[in-house]
Specification:
The protein is mainly alpha-helical and 383 residues long. Helix content is 72%, strand content 0%. It is globular. The model has no long low-confidence stretch (mean pLDDT 90).
Length: 383
């Protein structure tokens, strides 16, 4: 009888009810809320579902992220090994390969001024960098945090790892991916505040056709120019342009399909779940994390605003030929930010089609964020 009682007592005390803190329950609630946004509202479900479920798992069973050094049998938790691929910059680079294979750079090639709009939206990154230093973060931590302003999760993870900010990688990655998912909520109020009804109603001229030769040369030329100037961008820019070359060359259809579908989705599952699993209550519920999340939101808002304001400037210079709304797409959330530009423009005039025009700054923003990361790495002598 004593054996049965002792066995039952051990089993009961092994349940999560006896091991979780109030913080774990709070994070479980947050995970369920994010799942609601992803499933019910459709906010970037490909990202938010695995991230949210990783958050749920680690707060129900923290040992799923345990490193081998902390376990009795010397075997780490499943998601610990997934997370190592984030720290080693393998998964972010593979994400860029998939993004390149899925992306049409034609709108950017057809309208090179999109590069300027994409660059303007990166102002949020440098604003966040200075703000983070003022809030007490060291220079490398500030640089890693600042990339959240580009709404680029893979680059945020990549830079945090390269700058040795592994302790901050979880909050940084979750903030970056969360803001990517919440683009449809965060951006529209800023866009409407900074533009007039007349500006939002501007119809842009149809983009010129882009030749196959131009599309093939673009990834090659960009890789050569950018990597010559900033060699440290090779893992991200190189993989982005390799994926795009797969797409545009037309001779490696199998590689294009693999990179943009099977490989991309496998990597998203592993990266998203492992990123979500960094949000244990012990690691996430602290004042430093709150500062990172706040800085990320400010940086993202500033990036959106700077893109729109630069779009207004170009609108004036070109005599009203550029709709300022496409400047907001200069953040790197592809293609969600471009869709938001289209949606806000269509609210004023349902016949206005801005999506392809917004894709130019959108993909330019991806390149711009990678370049910004390369600049930080060059400043700190990391490569």
């Amino acid at each position: 009888m004593d054996y049965i009682v002792e066995t039952m007592d051990n089993l009961i005390h092994q349940t999560a009810f006896f091991n979780l803190t109030w913080g774990n329950y709070l994070m479980i609630f947050v995970a369920c809320f994010f799942l609601y946004l992803a499933i019910r509202k459709g906010y970037e479900p490909l990202l938010l579902v695995p991230i949210s479920f990783g958050m749920l798992l680690v707060n129900l069973f923290p040992d799923i992220m345990a490193s081998p050094e902390t376990t009795a049998n010397g075997i780490g938790g499943l998601l610990h090994y997934f997370y190592l691929l984030d720290e080693w910059a393998i998964l972010p680079s593979l994400i860029f390969l998939g993004v390149g294979a899925m992306t049409d750079f034609g709108p950017l090639i057809a309208n090179p001024i999109s590069f300027l709009l994409g660059a303007a939206a990166q102002f949020g990154i440098f604003f966040a960098y200075l703000s983070a230093i003022l809030l007490g973060f060291n220079d490398k931590a500030a640089a890693a945090i600042s990339i959240i302003g580009g709404a680029d999760g893979p680059t945020s993870i990549f830079l945090a790892g390269m700058l040795g900010q592994g302790d901050l990688m979880g909050p940084i990655a979750v903030a970056a991916y969360s803001y990517m998912s919440l683009v449809p909520i965060i951006q529209p109020p800023i866009m409407r505040l900074l533009t007039t009804k007349e500006e939002r109603s501007i119809k842009m001229e149809q983009l010129r056709p882009v030749s196959k030769l131009e599309k093939i040369l673009f990834p090659i030329v960009v890789t050569i120019v950018v990597v010559l100037i900033l060699p440290t961008t090779a893992p991200l820019v190189g993989m982005l342009m390799l994926g795009n070359l797969f797409r545009e060359s037309g001779v490696v259809k199998q590689l294009t399909e693999t990179a943009s579908n099977a490989l991309m989705y496998i990597v998203v599952i592993i990266l998203g779940t492992s990123v979500g699993a960094t949000t244990s209550a012990e690691a996430f519920l602290n004042f430093q994390t709150l500062k990172i999340v706040a800085l990320g939101l400010i940086a993202f808002a500033v990036g959106t605003a700077s893109g729109v304001l630069f779009g207004k400037l170009l609108c004036k210079i070109t005599g009203g030929k550029i709709n300022p709304l496409i400047g907001s797409a200069g953040v790197s959330a592809v293609p969600m930010a471009a869709r938001v530009s289209q949606k806000v423009g269509a609210e004023e005039d349902p016949t206005n089609f801005l999506l392809m025009h917004a894709m130019g700054p959108n993909v330019a923003g991806v390149i711009g964020t990678a370049v910004a990361a390369g600049v930080f790495m060059a400043i700190f002598g990391v490569g």
